[in-house]
């Protein structure tokens, strides 16, 4: 028997729980306005042996049972019977309007009331062609998108959070979908989500493919493991995962976006609207993670990306800034939203929209692990982007301070981790990019953002000395060679560590910004091959970046004077 420590909320988030004298709630729960629940004061654990007093191991008595031990009789095993398909059929409640999902969180958070939000959602039209998917037949092919008729029949109630049919009881002892015909009632039941096989396939696609993209700076992989678990009892989270997976699978297979993706997106937005209409105290990490997922849904089809869900995320974070240092899924969602904001900065040349100072209260500044190290350099890069793209922050002292911060970070990083193998690039030896092997996704991300910081400092940091003529041209060419070395390192990290698919996104974004600096023909062709590989493997369209780089290289090689 030992005393229990920490409240349930802090244990779930792997945080130290501190309770001041006289308080019934811990400090973290008070700051985040969460319910603080402590377990029993004492916990009992199983004992396998007892040591005699003063005798140690010699006097140890094993707590085992002999063959003559008398045991009470137990219930007989139940025979398998008919399937329980009838028990698992969903309850059909009252009909609700179907919505397409073109409304955005940005439009909902901008107004003080949500009276017009539902009208915006209901007035939008599907922008995708509906595939001619059969809605009849005994079995649906789970690898093909479901039809609107099938989805409407399954989700007429939108899976409300209060709906009793969202999870149906699944009898204990049944593992193959069969239910005993004659058995005594069990005192407990395992909740079984009422998902179709297609929806289970979509959730698993999120776990296998998309979740790891979002967890590159999170050792606990909250989006890969925790978010799908919450989706089983949080309908708004579930619909966001289904929408992302459905759209991404269509992009990977080069098919038109299925109607099911817009259906799930619309259902998710409807539930988000309902939660936003409630008091701010229930705007929890589930809502924030859902909005971040909606931004991913918007981002993966970046040809028509209007960046509106990101604006909604920034408004939600400004309304509840404690998310950035709350730990657990909430803080992981904040760091993911920051990386999403950085993507917009790189593609549109705008300063970050998030309050970067709110991230400085995070516990990552303890440098406790690889993920903390990666998040810090991501924040430094966001601050460099703010200097580069904002007219209000042009002081040379700000640039110098950030340059020192980046180098100080690198000094501490060297004491935490280094590449397990490094070989510099050599185009004469068929090695256009350096080989840089790492052992974890946060390490890859950290080094990529470090090189991104160095490249942007070279491109945008003002020079104290103004040069002209040959000296100015010489400094420019030297700068472009240094930028090229950082860019090929970023691509090398992506190619050398294929288990970190998110590294391909970072490499693509930076090549779009500074790829024109690359002059070596071999490296240029390998960059184009790399971008083509990213589109084929990840479904992220890189054709526009390829065309841009070709035009830039053509102009620089053969200027039209």
UniProtKB/TrEMBL annotation:
<dbReference type="GO" id="GO:0005634">
    <property type="term" value="C:nucleus"/>
</dbReference>
<dbReference type="InterPro" id="IPR001138">
    <property type="entry name" value="Zn2Cys6_DnaBD"/>
</dbReference>
<feature type="region of interest" description="Disordered">
    <location>
        <begin position="158"/>
        <end position="192"/>
    </location>
</feature>
<dbReference type="GO" id="GO:0000976">
    <property type="term" value="F:transcription cis-regulatory region binding"/>
</dbReference>
<protein>
    <recommendedName>
        <fullName>Zn(2)-C6 fungal-type domain-containing protein</fullName>
    </recommendedName>
</protein>
<dbReference type="InterPro" id="IPR036864">
    <property type="entry name" value="Zn2-C6_fun-type_DNA-bd_sf"/>
</dbReference>
<feature type="compositionally biased region" description="Polar residues">
    <location>
        <begin position="175"/>
        <end position="186"/>
    </location>
</feature>
<dbReference type="GO" id="GO:0000981">
    <property type="term" value="F:DNA-binding transcription factor activity, RNA polymerase II-specific"/>
</dbReference>
<dbReference type="GO" id="GO:0008270">
    <property type="term" value="F:zinc ion binding"/>
</dbReference>
<feature type="domain" description="Zn(2)-C6 fungal-type">
    <location>
        <begin position="6"/>
        <end position="38"/>
    </location>
</feature>
<dbReference type="Pfam" id="PF11951">
    <property type="entry name" value="Fungal_trans_2"/>
</dbReference>
<keyword id="KW-0539">Nucleus</keyword>
<dbReference type="InterPro" id="IPR021858">
    <property type="entry name" value="Fun_TF"/>
</dbReference>
<dbReference type="GO" id="GO:0045944">
    <property type="term" value="P:positive regulation of transcription by RNA polymerase II"/>
</dbReference>
């Amino acid at each position: 028997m030992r005393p229990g420590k920490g409240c349930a909320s802090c244990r779930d988030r792997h945080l130290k729980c501190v309770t001041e004298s006289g308080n019934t709630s811990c400090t973290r729960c008070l700051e985040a306005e969460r319910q603080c629940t402590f377990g029993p004061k004492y916990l009992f654990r199983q004992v396998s042996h007892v040591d005699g007093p003063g005798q140690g191991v010699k006097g140890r008595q094993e707590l085992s049972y002999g063959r003559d031990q008398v045991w009470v009789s137990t219930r007989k095993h139940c025979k398998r019977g008919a399937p329980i398909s009838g028990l698992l059929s969903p309850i059909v409640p009252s009909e609700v309007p179907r919505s397409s999902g073109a409304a955005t969180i940005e439009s909902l958070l901008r107004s003080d009331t949500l009276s017009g939000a539902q009208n915006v959602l209901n007035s939008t039209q599907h922008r995708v062609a509906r595939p001619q998917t059969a809605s009849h037949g005994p079995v649906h092919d789970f690898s093909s998108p479901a039809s609107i008729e099938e989805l409407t029949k399954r989700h007429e109630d939108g899976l409300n959070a209060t709906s009793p049919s969202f999870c149906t009881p699944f009898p204990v002892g049944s593992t193959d979908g069969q239910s005993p015909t004659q058995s005594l009632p069990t005192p407990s039941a395992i909740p079984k989500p009422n998902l179709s096989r297609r929806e289970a396939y979509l959730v698993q696609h999120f776990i296998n493919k998309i979740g790891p993209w979002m967890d590159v700076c999170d050792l606990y992989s909250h989006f890969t493991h925790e978010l799908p678990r919450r989706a089983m009892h949080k309908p708004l989270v579930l619909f966001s995962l289904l929408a992302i997976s459905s759209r991404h699978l269509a992009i990977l297979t080069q098919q038109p976006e299925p109607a099911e993706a817009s259906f799930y997106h619309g259902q998710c937005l409807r539930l988000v609207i309902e939660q936003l209409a409630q008091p701010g105290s229930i705007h929890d990490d589930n809502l924030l993670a859902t909005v971040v997922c909606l931004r991913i849904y918007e981002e993966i089809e970046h040809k028509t990306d209007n960046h509106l869900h990101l604006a909604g995320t920034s408004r939600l974070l400004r309304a509840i800034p404690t998310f950035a240092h709350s730990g657990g899924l909430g803080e992981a969602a904040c760091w993911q939203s920051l990386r999403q904001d950085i993507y917009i900065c790189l593609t549109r040349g705008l300063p970050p929209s998030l309050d970067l100072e709110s991230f400085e209260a995070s516990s990552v500044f303890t440098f406790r692990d690889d993920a903390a190290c990666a998040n810090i350099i991501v924040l430094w890069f966001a601050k460099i982007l703010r200097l580069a793209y904002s007219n209000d922050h042009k002081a040379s002292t700000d640039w110098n301070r950030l340059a020192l911060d980046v180098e100080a970070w690198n000094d501490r990083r060297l004491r935490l981790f280094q590449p397990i193998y490094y070989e510099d690039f050599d185009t004469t030896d068929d090695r256009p990019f350096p080989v840089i092997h790492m052992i974890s996704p946060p390490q890859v991300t950290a080094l990529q953002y470090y090189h991104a910081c160095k490249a942007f400092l070279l491109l945008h940091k003002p020079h104290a000395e103004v040069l002209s003529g040959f000296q100015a041209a010489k400094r420019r060419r030297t700068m472009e060679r240094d930028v090229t070395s950082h860019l090929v390192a970023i691509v090398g990290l992506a190619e050398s560590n294929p288990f970190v698919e998110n590294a391909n996104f970072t490499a693509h974004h930076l090549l779009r910004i500074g790829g024109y600096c690359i002059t070596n023909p071999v490296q240029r062709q390998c960059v184009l091959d790399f971008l083509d590989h990213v589109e084929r493997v990840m479904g992220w369209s890189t054709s526009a970046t390829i065309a841009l780089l070709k035009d830039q290289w053509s102009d620089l090689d053969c200027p039209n004077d």
